Amino acid sequence: MATVLERVSEFKNEALIDFKDPANKAKMEAALAAVRAGGSATYDLIINGRRVRGAGTFKTSNPAKPSESVGTVQKASPAQAREAVAAAEQAFYSWSKVPAAQRAALLFKAAELTRARRFEFDALLVLEVGKSWGEADGDVAEGIDFLEYYAREMLRLDGPHPVTPVPGEKNAMIYIPLGVGVIIPPWNFAFAIMAGMTSAAIVAGNAVVLKPSSDSPVIAYKFVELLEQAGMPPGVVNLVTGSGSEIGDLLVQHPRVRFISFTGSKEVGLHINQLAATPQAGQIWIKRVVAEMGGKDSIVVAADADLDAAVDGVAASAFGFQGQKCSACSRAIVEAPIYDEFVNRLKKRVATINTGDPADPSVTMGPVINEGSLKKIESYVAEGKKEGTLIAGGERASGEGYYMQPTVIADVKPDAKIAQEEIFGPVLAVIKAKDYDDALRIANNTEYGLTGSVYSQDRSKLERARDEFHVGNLYFNRKCTGAMVGAHPFGGFNMSGTDSKAGGPDYLLLFLQAKSVSEKVG
Ligand code: NAP
Ligand code: MG
């Protein structure tokens, strides 16, 4: 009889919606209106399937129009955060015994329900985090991909794995879940990363507390609700909203928590790693920390590169979603012979980017996430003007939202502050390299190692980069953003994190532990 895995179709990436099609455009406009109309709704905590009010509330707002509420959300109290851990622990005992095929079926069902709500989720991302229509749809499609991919991965990992035969023994290795996890995602892939981190943990048989970013709690609520509709038992995912600085430490330190899966900044990731390393009273395990953190990603443009392709790739990687991707290009490293021409062409290309409210589909660049982020970006730009030559942008763009112009600073030294620190906004440093050796050396000179790209038509240069460019996701002659589930397992080196390779065949193992069973026979 065919196994469940054999009966499942091969994984394929979800196609993106074509918004040029008038029918799709009309559906998206209707979805935006509907999400807007729901902006006065209040969202509860979800603990053991129950809707619970918190110790207070906060509003999540549209970064393109901060006066517009996207929803009112609960601030969980410390006691409620502890209750959520207890609920997950209770659920773990039964959920971990549910056959893997049934857990995978939950993810397949969740993918199907997400497809049915594609426009609604797209619209919510436009309004809650300021994505353009295309970026929002890419985020939701990637979330569907994670659900489909991890479901198949669990089916692959289920059951006894053959080991080296030993005469007189029957041996096998199986994978079992870890226990209670805390899932802490960022806001920038508010659906994909949140849904991917959560679904990977639970399909492996764990139960979790999901603490979404305070900038994107509504999409997380809708996802947990959707998992319930797909048949998830109470307590398997508990939703606890509220400030990470207020309830985060408590969740990370809780002695019944077995693992923490975090994606976000280097500062918070290192803090979590340190807290989790100290055993608490009653704790009987070493906590596992999966931490995917920041980037300072470079595109190297070799002297022989197709310049127009390089300019396009750099602009798309630097300014897509306002530079707020961990994979965003924030350094273009350009060989001296073509440097001036590259800068000229880039300046013209950046002038074609229009900034405004991404609810308007003709807008290519929307707002940054919040006022704090805008101020931080402005201070980096002020610094950058001293460290190099401003050739585009440099100012807030007009409008009520948190708008920043796409900004390019050229002639930046490789060790300058704006060439080293993650800015997480639409700011690109252009660095001149003496030659290709110099370019590769500069590309490796930060503490990060997430993504990178090389534009060159010279095979030997690409092969050198394959060996020497030390990043978790390396691309040739294409942009350094837009990793696809299955095709480009994602995660970085050095201070970019634990290289978890989300969307790849190693990922689920992070939420499992192997058990070897050996029986004497004959
Ligand atoms: P962040 O400020 O580090 O926040 C990430 C998450 O941590 C949020 O849910 C946040 O909650 C929570 N948090 C904050 N303080 C905490 C604490 N003491 N204990 C526990 N949790 C705490 O990052 P972000 O601004 O959301 O996201 C941007 C960052 O993520 C960038 O650095 C980017 O490079 C990185 N990123 C990396 C990857 C990757 O795969 N490597 C992917 C995407 C993004 P609150 O919102 O309530 O503070
Ligand atoms: Mg918001």
Description:
Strands 14-15-16-13-12-17-18 form a 7-stranded mixed β-sheet, with helices on both faces. Strands 9-8-7-10-11 form a 5-stranded parallel β-sheet, sandwiched between helices. It folds into 2 domains: 292 residues, Aldehyde Dehydrogenase, Chain A, domain 1 (3-Layer(aba) Sandwich); 188 residues, 3-Layer(aba) Sandwich (Aldehyde Dehydrogenase, Chain A, domain 2), CATH 3.40.309. The protein is globular and about 75 Å long. Helices cover 39% and strands 20% of the residues. It has 522 residues and is of the alpha/beta class. Helix 2 packs across helix 5 and helix 4 runs antiparallel to helix 6. The chain has 16 helices and 19 strands.
